[in-house]
Design goal:
By secondary structure, the chain is mainly α. It has one domain: Ferritin. It is built from seven helices and no strands.
């Protein structure tokens, strides 16, 4: 089984970014980039699932991930344009991208039910970590009220994604 991505929450510690961010917290441009990167990563994972999976439930879940995460990222891009903010790449977003690339490669080596189980397990872990980071770091550290509201809306939606992935995973055992 592919080891799931342990995103953001663990990443803050693993990348050494936690001490740096603990003192000041990520800035709004950094938060915007982290959130956008996390969404784009989930879209890419879902597109991989759509290309590889033949399971109707897995495909339906992946279609939901593409639709919802692309929609949130469109809203995020509109907000940063409105606010005239340029999202800033940072250690966390770079580490997210590197971990996603490694996970994509691991999933690419799997087929059939093994792929489906690994993809869903990764989605559970991914959403758990992202939701944790939204609750404990990104939302509390966001200064702009509109950015904070968008992150809170995302958290509600991504919590539903996590629950959906957990139920899907339980049905696959």
């Amino acid at each position: 089984m592919v080891r799931p991505v342990r995103l953001l929450a663990a990443l803050l510690l693993a990348t050494g970014a936690a001490p740096l961010l603990a003192a000041t917290g990520p800035s709004d441009p950094e938060i915007a980039h982290i959130a956008y990167t996390a969404g784009a990563i989930d879209v890419a994972a879902a597109k991989q699932a759509l290309a590889k999976s033949h399971d109707a439930q897995v495909r339906a879940f992946a279609e939901t991930m593409v639709r919802d995460h692309e929609a949130v990222n469109v809203q995020a891009l509109a907000l940063v344009k409105k606010l005239n903010v340029t999202p800033t790449d940072n250690a966390i977003s770079k580490s997210l991208a590197a971990q996603a690339k490694a996970t994509e490669a691991k999933l690419a080596a799997l087929d059939g039910a093994a792929f489906d189980r690994a993809y869903v397990a990764n989605e559970v872990a991914y959403h758990s970590a992202v939701n944790g980071a939204l609750k404990t770091t990104l939302i509390p550290d966001a200064d702009n009220k509109e950015l904070k509201a968008l992150l809170e809306t995302g958290l509600a939606l991504f919590t539903e994604h996590q629950t959906h992935a957990e139920h899907l995973g339980a049905s696959m055992k």
